[in-house]
Write a structure and sequence with these properties.
Length: 470
């Protein structure tokens, strides 16, 4: 690879590790005006990974297709670099370099020469010697690879472009506490009216521009009174709020369940709103995500008849050692992963104390007949009509997998995604790059979507304390 004639010290040269392309094939176009280099070992590893039906194999094939598109339009002199600007990715103005000629490199004697990681490190060293005036940076998702690079005096960094937020503390919570002087500053020209038993408020003021549609706002006073509402409309100067149904009151119980705290009340207002098609729930263990979602689903499926059935799916990532092959049908194979479903059904089935053992057994059979457990592996290509879809443990999904699942929803279908981003078990995913974080950020403010971050655990004092100190 020849050095370019014009000065390039103002742009960087990124050497991509294979795992970056396997994680995000579009990473080829994510470095804006900077150049990227692909060592030959990366192309070899892409070729080795392309077979199969896994997400890694699909990404390997997609990366190869992108490279074929880039190289097919390249000039005959590939060593001069290939423009990365394409019809689909016009934001990238850098160039792609391939390792087309031998680069002299020297590795420490204790590094094995035949290993792919070490060969890529050798390319980085060679490029740095070839272009000393330029920043040559290794980009890898492999922590040990980055450590070795830095030990050799090379620049190395993680791939950050897939991260929605660097700091998950800034992630949208769906809830906003109103300031103490809110009514003085925003309620001067306030209009209010009552419709269908709900009170509506039209307010004006500087805070309106910072609100999102379907965001919950509240103000709690020292005397125990409080104001709780949802944002229906907003612009830079005004907003329309609507008061909520109080699900903390037993007369408004949902399948025998009442909200135990403020956030749970907000969740039930989202889940039981037929105009909301997509709901995301974040929260640590014991905050009631699954129980509330199931209770609302049973209410709307068996009583209100809004949905024909409940479909539950989750990522099958084991916490410990994998137990291997599971016999049986699709639903039977998924049963070991659905312990949380059975636990919550037991709770919901015991809410009617007057039914007796026979009555509860009949109710349980009726409930189970309307709940279908599906595997993620067979979701591609399907369309669900009038279904209530629950995606559990969705923090382990990539943004691409999340898109595949959500786009299965047909007319009349509601999708609920829930999880805890502090419990990610999938390699190469972090709190910032999880598919759950991705959809929370992308769907905020959509008029048919809502999100709540649950804060208080209600499982037991032991579970709450463990979640805080462990």
């Amino acid at each position: 690879m020849r050095q370019r004639k014009k000065a390039v010290s103002d742009t960087k040269l990124f050497v991509l590790d294979t795992n970056v392309l396997l994680h995000d094939p579009t990473s080829l176009f994510r470095f804006e005006e900077h150049d990227i280099c692909l060592p030959m070992f990366v192309l070899e590893e892409l070729d080795n990974k392309k077979k199969g039906t896994t997400e890694v194999a699909r990404n390997a094939r997609q990366a190869s297709r992108f490279l074929d598109e880039i190289v097919s339009d390249a000039p005959h002199d590939i060593e001069a670099g290939i423009s990365l600007e394409s019809r689909m990715h016009k934001t990238s103005t850098g160039r792609l370099f391939l390792q087309t000629s031998f680069i002299k490199q020297e590795l420490p004697n204790n590094l094995e020469l035949g290993k792919a990681d070490n060969a890529i490190l050798g390319v980085v060293i060679g490029l740095q010697e070839l272009q000393p005036e330029r920043s040559v940076i290794l980009v890898s998702k492999d922590i040990n690879m980055r450590i070795k690079a830095r030990a050799l005096g090379l620049e190395a960094q993680d791939y950050f472009n897939d991260k929605v937020l660097e700091d998950t503390d800034l992630l949208y919570t769906g809830v906003l506490e109103l300031p103490q002087d809110f009514w003085e500053t925003h309620g001067r020209d306030m209009k209010s009216w009552i419709k269908d038993g709900q009170t509506y408020y039209q307010i004006q003021g500087p805070l309106c521009g910072a609100l999102f549609v379907n965001q919950f706002v509240y103000r709690e006073e020292d005397d125990g009174s409080g104001f709780y509402a949802i944002v229906l409309e907003q612009n830079d100067t005004s907003a329309v709020l609507r008061t909520l149904t109080d699900y903390t009151n037993s007369k408004n119980n949902v399948w025998g369940i009442v909200a135990r705290n403020r956030e749970q009340n907000f969740v039930l207002n989202l889940l039981l709103n037929p105009d909301i098609d997509f709901v995301t729930l974040l929260g640590q263990a014991g905050t009631g995500k699954t129980l509330l979602t199931l209770a609302a689903g049973l209410m709307q499926t068996l009583e209100a008849k809004l949905y024909s059935e409940i479909i539950i799916t989750r990522v099958t990532v084991p916490i410990g050692e994998d137990i291997g092959f599971l016999p049986g049908t699709e639903e039977e194979k998924m049963t070991p992963w659905m312990g949380a479903l059975e636990d919550n059904l037991d709770v919901l089935n015991k809410t009617d104390e007057d039914a007796g053992d026979w009555g509860r057994a009949a109710t349980r059979d009726l409930i189970r007949s309307r709940i279908k457990v599906k595997s993620l592996n067979f979701m591609r290509g399907r369309t669900f009509l009038n279904k209530y879809i629950i995606i559990d443990e969705s923090q382990n999904l990539t943004p691409k997998q999340m898109k595949t699942l959500i786009t299965r929803a047909g007319p009349g279908t509601k999708v609920v995604c829930m999880g805890n981003i502090a419990q990610i078990d999938t390699p190469y995913l972090s709190e910032g790059s999880s598919g759950l974080t991705y959809v929370v950020d992308r769907f905020k403010g959509w008029q048919h979507g809502g999100h709540i971050t649950l804060l208080r655990g209600e499982r037991s004092r032991l579970a709450d304390h463990a979640g805080e100190v462990l």
